[in-house]
Amino acid sequence: MKLTTLEVISNRQLNPRTYELILSGDIPPVKSGQFADLAVKGWFLKRPFSIADCEGGRITVLYKAIGGGTREMAGWKKGDTTDALVCIGEGFDTSACLKPLLVGGGIGAAPLYLLAKEFNAMGITPDILLAFRDKEEAYYIDEFKALGNVYLSTDNGSLGYKGNALEALKYYNLEFDRYYACGPLPMLKAFAEYSRQGQLSLEARMGCGFGACMGCSIKTKGGPKRVCKEGPVFRADEVIF
Amino acid sequence: MDLRVNLLGYTLDNPVIPASGTFGFGYEFAEFYDINCLGSISLKGTTLEPRYGNPLPRIAECPSGLLNSIGLQNPGAQKVVAEELAKLGRVYGKKVIANVGGSAIDDYVQTASEFNNADSVFAIELNISCPNVKHGGMAFGTDPKVAAELVREVKKASTKPVMVKLSPNVTDITELAKAVEGAGADAVSLINTLVGMRIDLRTAKPILSAVSGGYSGPGVFPVALRMVYQVKKAVGIPVVGMGGIMTAYDVIEMMYAGAAAVMVGTANLVNPYACRDIIASLPRVMEELNISSLKEIIGRAHNG
Ligand SMILES: Cc1cc2nc3c(=O)[nH]c(=O)nc-3n(C[C@H](O)[C@H](O)[C@H](O)COP(=O)(O)OP(=O)(O)OC[C@H]3O[C@@H](n4cnc5c(N)ncnc54)[C@H](O)[C@@H]3O)c2cc1C
Ligand SMILES: Cc1cc2nc3c(=O)[nH]c(=O)nc-3n(C[C@H](O)[C@H](O)[C@H](O)COP(=O)(O)O)c2cc1C
Ligand code: FES
Description:
By secondary structure, chain A is α/β, with parallel strands linked by helices.
């Protein structure tokens, strides 16, 4: 983990509310599932975002403009800078997994992109299930298709199977020895109840992002753990919802 | 240039102390810089038994600060003494302040006593002002009689000097300060957080699961400064000032108001290097303001 200044290389709109932000700077090695905390001018706290990709001193963040800070970010131009904490938290555990299933709900697909790349580097082509509210919300489909077998679902059926992520998993008959899920809390909870063989990437409102304030502590079977330090990725069988 | 100050019989290399709850048990920050530059450290609020605290969300952003409703999450006094102090000792060579919370007089007394044999602790900071624990916490900090009773009992049991941390959520903070001074407190520290709330515009529900939380950060600085000034006037024991300090200028201003030392809280959360940076810029700011010794400026705003 490191505090550093990053420079905007590009900031591209992918759909009405989703953007792809590429930042460059002095970036330490990134593990999939780790996140970055980006300062936004005019807002007191930094905003946490999964690192969706990392290559040659650049990181990619995929973000949805939902509030003041992310709407401000949508206006960032090439050459703008942001103070950032990078490479925060423990990432996904890819060890001893031969048949991974990656499950993304909405903007939660972001960290799965780097995860899929890591599996590719291990010679594994992962199954990737992407669930969105509707077709408008979808992004990065072709990018994911280049890395794995992509299955789609939407709540209204405008793209892929009509239903939520867990229903889609059953519909597509997807098998796995471990699943990796990131998305809204109800989705993560449903998956944790469906199978213990998984890893969940959680969100929490954060005060610091580096373990100092206890603002992000969740309950686990092993006692309280911080989303920003021991997380954001947790074993499905340890999280107490 | 002399940055040293004295606090409760201990000489601090400089007056900057990270505030309780914003610096963990210290060692997290050793990842960022050599924390031996700090005057001292006030440890995370410790209770007799381990506490998880309040459900999430516990943090809500504000324009000039944040609300927290952590609820004194900590591993309990015994573990703090046996494990956390040892971990901190590996990266920090100076003495620290143990911050003690509770929900009954007995809790406070027992928790404070757990630190009696901890050599690295030079003082107890009694948190009678936490807005985030039910039954107690702030209740001890709003009633002068209850506060005085608590301080008397802790003083009997503790072998360390006792500093009492005051709540700003009262009509007249000087009444509390005078009450704890009368009961034998060796110093006071202030301010703890101001009770506030935020509502999520999308859901129309309070952001914090606990509904309200404590406001801290640069937005509270003028309130904190005023209270430190008032308390300095009202009592003879040392006053440790905090609330919204972000820069070396804020440190000087707080010392002018009467602070014998200062604590820096929320600044650490938004910039992990905050305390180091403040300490590093103090000599330059002292030179600019023609100050040769920080000891000499304590309470200067009260002169004439
Ligand atoms: C580990 C982690 C990874 C994340 N990865 C991504 C990602 O890859 N892409 C993406 O679009 N979003 C991601 N999020 C969510 C993202 O942090 C929020 O959408 C963002 O902080 C909202 O900021 P805002 O100013 O637009 O919203 P506002 O509601 O105005 O923000 C107010 C405050 O609440 C906090 N906040 C609001 N929503 C969330 C949330 N869901 N999680 C945490 N804090 C929140 C903000 O950080 C800010 O402090 C992630 C969150 C976490 C914890
Ligand atoms: C996340 C957080 C946790 C805190 N925990 C404690 C605590 O455990 N004990 C305590 O006495 N004060 C606690 N405080 C209060 C601070 O020590 C300090 O009094 C207050 O934040 C005002 O200073 P600041 O504006 O510099 O942060 C906490 C504050 C924050 C922001
Ligand atoms: S956000 Fe402060 S400990 Fe995780």
